[in-house]
Amino acid sequence: MKRWTLNPEYATGDSGLAFADLDSVFALGGEAITQDPLSTVHRVWVGDRHYYVKRYTSAGKNLRRYLGRPRIKAEWENLLNFHAWGIPSAVVVGFGLERRDGRFHRGALITQELSGTDDLARIARSGDARLSDGRWVAHVSRQIADATRMMHEQGFAHNDLKWRNILVDTKVYPDVYLIDCPGGSFWWGPMLEYRIIKDLACLDKLGKQKLSRSQRLRFYRWYVGERPLDSSDRKRIAAVLRFFEGRE
């Protein structure tokens, strides 16, 4: 059984032909970007723009192979959720999967390239001067804080909210986009709080190296909606700071 959904805005012209169905998508070439045992990512030029094509030939690791939603399905559903919640992300162009004998066989996700953007991890590695501009950092941090809060208010945690999965464009006051979220899921109770702490710790992993203490605290204040911090916030902040102890 094959299921494929193509965004109606891309269903005509060159994109409509290139992305018509799952077979067409798996026949695409393009520039190889990444590869792992589960998936490949290629950058393809179709019509007048670039797209990223992620193709999976395994449902995922461990129990994902047999139970629950395949990793590729989680990825496209999470990106669609981002858009529904008002969190800027890459446009989802097409998605779908094929099952054989009831088991996952293959799947794909296509997103339109966010041109003129770079991820925060690369910006940090390159020693980009923008990280020394307090106004730039504040503008970016506030957007990330708002997006993170919106996710967590839905009971959703990203699970890999690292700087490499956050894009910014080149405007003086840039827009921020969240990408690559195959591991995100909904949680509740103590498990949600644990995942919230993990998300915040992932952000702070590079944050503690590149940002000042006051910039990091300001981020957290924006994250909680600028209300006065209380004992539960202090407990959470301490847990965030300890999260990666012994794991690095």
From TrEMBL:
Pfam families for this protein: Kdo
Keyword match Kinase: yes
Record keywords: Kinase, Transferase
Record InterPro entries: Kinase-like_dom_sf, Prot_kinase_dom, Ser/Thr_kinase_AS
Gene3D superfamilies per UniProt: Transferase(Phosphotransferase) domain 1
MF GO annotations: ATP binding; protein kinase activity
Keyword hit for Nucleus: no
SUPFAM superfamilies (alphabetical): Protein kinase-like (PK-like)
Domain Protein kinase, chain residue ranges per copy: 4-248
Top-rank taxon, per record: Bacteria
Name of the protein in its database record: Lipopolysaccharide kinase (Kdo/WaaP) family protein
Organism encoding this protein: Halopseudomonas xinjiangensis
Native organism taxonomy: Bacteria, Pseudomonadati, Pseudomonadota, Gammaproteobacteria, Pseudomonadales
